[in-house]
Amino acid sequence: MSPASKSLGTALCWTALWVCLDQTTKRVALEFLDEYSHKEIIQGFLSFSLTFNPGGAFGIFSTYSETFRNALFLISALVALGVTMGWIFLTKRQDHLTLLGVGTILGGALGNGLDRFYFGAVVDFIDIHVNGYHWPTFNVADVAITLGALILFVPAFTPKHKEAPACTQKS
User: What does pTM read for this prediction?
Assistant: First the structure.
């Protein structure tokens, strides 16, 4: 098996894990929550509120036509898939952390894509609020996309440690 094939397999395992986690949590939310109901989990911090987001992140494009949104999100997904596969096959960075980041982003994107296919909107249910500030409702796929991006980009902005020069002895 080639190194690229092993790398692809590792990334796809992470992808499958995130898709399963995302879809399972959404099925539970759909089973136990009514749309726009509000179940407080941790007082003053975390609630579960079932919503359907036809737009993108933070509801962007939600006022556009369904045809436009479907085309936009399908093209975006295909571009993301192409970039992901290109990254795995063409870069020298095929370490475990990179494969985790790529697989995590892809898993989140596929999880939300499945929602768009089945429901015409993304199922969101995690609702965080602190001291009067409210974050837009999100889901596990959104967490995966954000986490995967952090995994990929944080190392790019951290200084690399240089190896100490080898000691040479003069005879």
Answer: 0.81
